[in-house]
Design goal:
With 285 residues, the protein is an all-alpha fold. Helices cover 69% and strands 0% of the residues. Helix 3 packs antiparallel against helix 10 and helix 4 packs antiparallel against helix 5. The longest helix has 31 residues. The protein is globular. The protein starts with a helix and ends with a helix.
Length: 285
């Protein structure tokens, strides 16, 4: 009896097979409505993300402005700003995961592309949709809050005074690594097969990762970890400081995403060891 139970328990998990890698070029995607639906979802999600979060940043600064005799301890504070970013990612990933995968970030898309989870065509088009969505979202903020927008920095990412360029770049690399590593872990199909609750909970750790990174790096760079977010704010704010520091918010996140993809695929998932084992076991190679 105990043996039967043990045997049944050993087969309780779903059978798992690694999905095949996405093709590098997949022109067939361009003929499918589902592909364009995913692009629309990424555009709208990034637009909403920037609209809510940049409004939160500007609102906080206006509520604590000494020139207006505001309470220095008023507003949502840095904690509230971090919650706005993390909470919106949680909500939007939950809403779009089944349509586009819920990337909402060129760095996430880049990491998934390096891991062969998406094709080059999809990766490039997603990044374009995300950047356009970010620009549109910040444009809405400026349209509705024009009097406050320029006065309070337009939500643009810049390197804070007193920090070196290297420190800012490191903050973006490590912060994006945390985010993309969490994305890989939360969406790992092997874990999904073993633990049925993982797909349902996936947006939660991703949102929390964004929240925690913002707590740590808002004082340094304002927290980018999302090139579309930084670009959208810079385009609409259009001031020299935002453009001078813009490269940090592209180079840092892309490096962090690449390291996270390598770490998850080749260290944690032992991709390098599997490839080497396959090579050794095939004498004809």
């Amino acid at each position: 009896m105990a043996k039967d139970i043990a045997e049944q328990g050993s087969f309780s998990a779903k059978d798992y097979h690694d999905p095949p890698p996405a093709p590098l070029f997949d022109a067939v995607e361009l003929t499918k409505w589902s592909f364009y639906r995913a692009l629309i979802a990424e555009f709208i999600a990034t637009l909403l993300f920037l609209y809510i979060t940049v409004l939160t940043v500007i609102g906080y600064k206006s509520q604590t402005d000494h020139a207006l005799n505001a309470d220095a301890c008023g507003g949502v504070g840095i904690l509230g700003i971090a919650w706005a970013f993390g909470g919106m990612i949680f909500v939007l990933v939950y809403c779009t995961a089944g349509i586009s995968g819920g990337h909402i970030n060129p760095a996430v898309t880049f990491g998934l592309f390096l891991a062969r989870k998406v094709s080059l065509v999809r990766a490039v088009m997603y990044m374009v949709a995300q950047c356009l969505g970010a620009i549109s979202g910040v444009a809405l903020v400026k349209a509705f809050q024009k009097s406050f927008y320029k006065r309070y920095g337009g939500g643009a990412n810049t390197l804070a005074d007193g920090y070196s360029t290297g420190t800012g770049l490191a903050a973006e690399i490590i912060g994006t690594f945390v985010l993309v590593y969490t994305v890989f872990s939360a969406t790992d199909p092997k874990r999904n097969a073993r633990d049925s609750h993982v797909p349902v909970l996936a947006p939660l750790p991703i949102g929390f990762a964004v929240f925690m990174v913002h707590l740590a790096t808002i004082p340094i760079t304002g927290t980018g970890i999302n090139p579309a977010r930084s670009l959208g704010a810079a385009v609409i704010y259009n001031q020299d400081k935002a453009w001078d520091d813009q490269w940090i918010f592209w180079v840092g996140p892309f490096i962090g995403a690449a390291i996270a993809a390598f770490y998850h695929q080749f260290i944690l998932r032992a991709g390098a060891a599997k490839a080497l084992g396959s090579f050794r076991s095939n004498p004809s190679v």
